[in-house]
Amino acid sequence: MANIADIAILVLLIVASTPHTTEATKHVVPWMIPATQNSSFYSNLLANTKFNLNDILFFNYTTGTHNVVTLSKDDFKACNVKKKMETFDTGPTMFELNRTGEYYFACAFPFHCSLGQKLSVNVMASSSSPEAAPAKAPSPASRLSAAVTFPALLMVIAINILF
Ligand SMILES: *[C@@H]1O[C@H](CO)[C@@H](O)[C@H](O)[C@H]1NC(C)=O
Ligand SMILES: *[C@@H]1O[C@H](CO)[C@@H](O)[C@H](O)[C@H]1NC(C)=O
Ligand SMILES: *[C@@H]1O[C@H](CO)[C@@H](O)[C@H](O)[C@H]1NC(C)=O
Ligand SMILES: [Cu+2]
């Protein structure tokens, strides 16, 4: 029968194998006009997604049906797509998030942005360099506590099984 020491080792192994947030993640974004006019469609869709430095945004669309442009915050709010900074016309578009902070994307096809095809993301530094995180981002401590809570829960379950 398993003893406390075995359980403790098991828990340690689980902690050690928990994936680190430093790996780049590819985020697939279905790039389209929301079914109903909805400026918060993409922010809702990605509300629980954490964007880390060097992650990839994969804007999934067919060339000629949409495009991807980057905008300033004000032009994003106003859907002023003519003030675009960069344009990507070939779908799908892979965009590397190679700096921290806010990014503002939209589709520059007529009316698509005002119908809700716009996306902003806030890129946080990965856990290896928390000092580079912008002030608005959730603190590394909150991510750390999530990582610690899970094994602690397992420990409680293991102890409950034993006694
Ligand atoms: C906007 O899109 C989000 C995400 O799909 C959805 O939860 C919300 O109900 C939509 N709002 C409207 C007004 O359609
Ligand atoms: C991109 O969209 C197409 C059409 O909806 C879909 O078949 C394909 O699986 C999507 N690609 C990814 C990587 O999700
Ligand atoms: C990020 O990539 C863009 C375009 O690929 C490039 O212009 C920019 O210099 C890069 N920024 C950093 C911080 O590497
Ligand atoms: Cu579009």
TrEMBL record:
Keywords: Copper, Metal-binding, Signal. PROSITE patterns: COPPER_BLUE, PHYTOCYANIN. Pfam families: Cu_bind_like. SUPFAM superfamilies: Cupredoxins. Residues 1-24 form the signal peptide. Residues 25-125 form the Phytocyanin domain. InterPro entries: BlueCu_1_BS (IPR028871), Cupredoxin (IPR008972), Phytocyanin-like (IPR039391), Phytocyanin_dom (IPR003245). This is Phytocyanin domain-containing protein. It comes from Stylosanthes scabra.
